[in-house]
What we know:
By secondary structure, the protein is mainly α. The protein has 1 helix and no strands. Residues 1-20, 31-71 are annotated as: Disordered.
Amino acid sequence: xxxxxxxxxxxxxxxxxxxxxxxxxxxxxxxxxxxxxxxxxxxxxxxxxxxxxxxxxxxxxxxxxxxxxxx
Length: 71
């Protein structure tokens, strides 16, 4: 029975190792997904800032033009 017990122990250890590998892969995928989402949020925020700056600059230019017309 010693060989059968050894085989059962080896199979159990292998199963545990496979289970840990699957969990690690799942965690890595989740981490990468979080990283991609955060990067997308940064890019969106940068785009929003550029858009707001462009709008501000356009408003300043318009106001300067109107001020020159008043003179």
